[in-house]
Amino acid sequence: MEFEHKVVCITGVSKGIGRAIAQAFQNDGAHVYGIDLIQPETLSGIHFFQGDISNKQVRTDFIDFVLKQGKGIDVFVNNAMVFGRGLRSDVSLEDFEAILALGISAPYDFARLTKPFMNEGSSILNILSTRAYQSMPDSEGYAAVKGAMNALTHAMAMSLGPKTRVNAIAPGWIDTLESELSPSDLKQHPLHKVGIPEDIANACLYLASQKAGFITASTLVVDGGMSKQMIYHGDYGWTFNPNE
């Protein structure tokens, strides 16, 4: 097991993608340290710290909690995020800035705090979204964070290498709720399936491993090809109504 006895930190660890990432590293023998606003119900065996990472003191306290084990840090995964709306919802500047604090200021500060303690050959992984490259209305908060994190990834890679590699993963549609999906939901993806959290966890295991030792400053899109499929008005039964 490549990650046996390695120290892995994950934000937003209590459910969904974060929970799957924690489970994957734990199954590979890692010592997993997680932080979230809510206590995970069924994820046992991780070292859990409860708190809001948009708070500077909470970030400092979490890193102190991790470093008590005395082995440094091998992998840090920036996953925590909430969906931030925007102009159509008339989101206030204060609420918009709160989204930025959670999604972009916190990952930067974690990199600053952990820089002296990252082990040789370590990795930072930033969880983006394909919304870093394409958008729907009323998603300015979320899109701004994911786009900024894409740029932050390659900037951090330049600053922290060669000791630490920094990469990102951009998930597409990931079903975190075991939803009842229609045939159209599935077939709009070239692979005819919607992603699951384990798909992102597997990508994390790969990018953090030495198999990816020559990969840094990169973003891996994991979306079943959905964002690359070009569809025009009239294709596949899809029609565009400009009045909607």
List the helices and strands and how they pair.
Elements (H helix, E strand, L loop, with lengths): L6 E5 L4 H12 L3 E6 L10 E4 L5 H12 L5 E6 L14 H22 L3 E10 L12 H21 L3 E8 L11 H5 L9 H12 L10 E4 L22
Parallel strand pairs: 1-2, 1-4, 2-3, 4-5, 5-6, 6-7
Helix pairs in contact: 1-6, 2-3, 3-4
Mean pLDDT: 92
Q: Rg from C-alpha positions?
A: 18 Å
End-to-end Cα distance, whole Å, is: 52 Å
Number of E-state strands:
7
What can you see in these coordinates?
- The protein has helices at about 15-25, 55-65, 95-115, 140-160, 185, 195-210, and strands at about 5-10, 30-35, 45-50, 75-80, 120-125, 165-170, 220.
- The radius of gyration is 18 Å and the shape is globular.
- The chain has a single domain (about 5-235), classed as Rossmann fold, CATH 3.40.50.720.
- With about 240 residues, the protein is α/β, with parallel strands linked by helices.
- Strands 3-2-1-4-5-6-7 form a seven-stranded parallel beta sheet, sandwiched between helices.
- Helix 1 (about 15-25) packs across helix 6 and helix 3 (about 95-115) runs parallel beside helix 4 (about 140-160).
- It has six helices and seven strands, in the order βαββαβαβαβααβ.
